[in-house]
Amino acid sequence: NAMLSWQRTAYHFQPEHNWMNDPNGPLFHKGWYHLFYQYNPDSAVWGTITWGHAVSKDLIHWLYLPFAMVPDHWYDIKGVWTGSATILPDGQIVMLYTGDTYDVVQVQCLAYPANLSDPLLLDWVKYSGNPVLVPPPGIGPKDFRDPTTAWLSPDGDKWRITIGSKLNKTGISLVYETVDFKTYDMLDGYMHAVPGTGMWECVDFYPVSIKEVNGLDTSVNGPSVKHVLKASLDDDKNDYYALGVYDPIENKWIPDDPELDVGIGLRYDYGKFYASKTFYDQNKQRRILWGWIRETDSEDDDILKGWASVQSIPRTVVFDQKTGSNILQWPVSEVEELRSESVEFGNVKLGPGSIFPLKVDTPSQLDIVASFEIDEDAFEGTVEVDADASYSCPTSGGAANRGKLGPFGVIVLGDKTLSEGTPIYFYITKGANGKAETHFCADELRSSLAPDVEKVVYGSKVPVLDGEKYSLRSLVDHSIVESFAQGGRTVITSRVYPTKAVDGAARVYLFNNATKVSVTASVKMWNMGTADIRTFPLNEL
Ligand code: FRU
Predict the structure, then answer these.
(1) What's domain 340-528's architecture?
(2) CA–CA dist 86, 94 (Å, integer)
(3) Which end of the chain is more exposed for a tag (fewer CB within 10 A), N or C?
């Protein structure tokens, strides 16, 4: 279907055909990054899931490999579901995943590479004693899935994993201890529980350094470490995280701020980004986050176009030492290999209600870095009368709604007349007390003329500290826009389906739709190349 073909992305990872969901078991081994993924080989909608497998030297260019694991045992015949890898100190690799059994019970299974000296890890062996864990008493057979990467117990003699579940409407994380990954003891209580959050899918749990900029291996703990706990909420299909402190003796994780607890506070991404997973990249001492970007069109259209979903550009994750209250996500530096010609526009003055077209060669494949300064005098003198504490990206009318101090930003994937376009913008509110708050939003309301696609406004608050400009970075890839504000404090992934703003016909604009302030913008944009993602004859590797 030619109408839909241009939506295919150029540098995001996706299978050649059919359905993909969660990233699974990412790891680095003998020079290769491995990505496994939930895959339906039969159709562009979810079904009986197999583990797809691809490898990369740089997290950008990929080779599809044969399936790593297929549903072929009683304990995973309805699906080889999400799992995580652990690399043991002696180099062994342990894979734990959820099997959906012949009678639809979620159980945990163990697998390992047949041959560790194979850099491609082509052959996987399922342990003969599988399953290694079944739902414990009191836990529903369909509420027990997605084991994490393991970390070492305080004595260093046992491994621990956590698995998400729920009790009534309370989301919980169960913790198990094991020596050999074959037999397990459940620890008393839960590592954490949050009422009202429902089933916790794809729990992730890892340390971040509060002093260093490098990432940490999963077992690190101590006074200069905080722990991120993340749950993917089945009920609203968003990934929520919180920062806190892990007490391994009590088997408890305590949030720094109970009002920003898991599932009720911060999200990794305010757009389409789900079932994510991190891994520690021992090659470059960083922690890398992958997330599944879902479709927001109809299943019929997905079947027509023959594929569904992409993975996000992998992001490094670090603690934000400036705010102390959030993480920072940033596209891995390797994505910059795809940059070619750049154009730069410095000091573009944008008066209230103005728009400024930017000329670029490859408007559907871009890396955009932009910063904005607002006219101080106007800003100081301005107070929103009806103190706009109630502003929120999703409910405040998008980029067409003019306030005194916003919106301003960029419009990507727009056409010549702006009958289509996706504004990515800042919106500042300032109440009578003079306190300013900045929101970072992505407005999809006019992103597509197609009828059957979701069109919403995404976004949330973003901390902007004294002396900082308003800064954003957007990776544009045909039908995906991943946007990072203030160095990655707030992130929004948009899945959009332009019909006119496609390929070379797309346009980029700067805009300022505020009524009161002028904005000075500086922007640099790179044309982005196309990643090489394909099947490669194995005998040529
Ligand atoms: C999350 C999820 C996981 C499960 C997998 C099945 O998207 O529902 O909880 O393991 O997908 O494909």
Answers:
(1) Sandwich (2.60)
(2) 5
(3) N
Q: What is the pLDDT of residue 383?
A: 72
Do the Cβ atoms of 393 and 270 come closer than 8 Å? yes
| Contact yes or no for 519/436 (Cβ under 8 A) | no
Ligand 1 pocket, Cβ-based, cut-off 6 angstroms: 21-22, 38, 49, 81-82, 98, 145-146, 201-202, 275
Element (H, E) at 392: none
Q: What token pair was written down for 306?
A: 């023959």
Which parts of the chain register pLDDT below 70? 1-4, 384-389, 541
Q: Is 22 marked active-site?
A: yes
Residue nearest to ligand 1 atom 1, measured at CA: 275
DSSP H helices, 222-375, are 299-305
Ligand 1 centroid vs 237 CA: distance in angstroms?
Answer: 11
Model's pTM, two decimal places?
Answer: 0.97
Q: Where are the domains of the chain?
A: 2-331, 340-528
Cα 334 to Cα 57, 216, 316, 330: the distances in Å are: 10, 20, 11, 11
State ipTM: 0.99
Cβ pair 517, 379 in contact under 8 A? yes
Please determine, looking at this structure, whether the domain spanning 2-331 carries the CATH number 2.115.10.20: yes
45 CA → ligand 1 middle, Å: 13
DSSP 487: T
**Which helix (H) or strand (E) segment is 3 a member of?**
helix 2-5
DSSP characters over 99-145: EE-TTS-EEEEEEEES-TT-TT---EEE-TT--SB-PPTTS-TTS-B
21, 172, 180, 253, 255 from 262: Cα distances, Å: 22, 10, 30, 11, 8
Distances (CA, A) of 270 to 189, 266, 287: 31, 9, 21
- Which residue from 82, 100, 234 has its CB within 8 A of the most atoms of ligand 1, so it is best to mutate? 82
Supply the Cα-derived Rg of the chain in whole angstroms: 23
Distance CA 152, CA 479 (A): 41
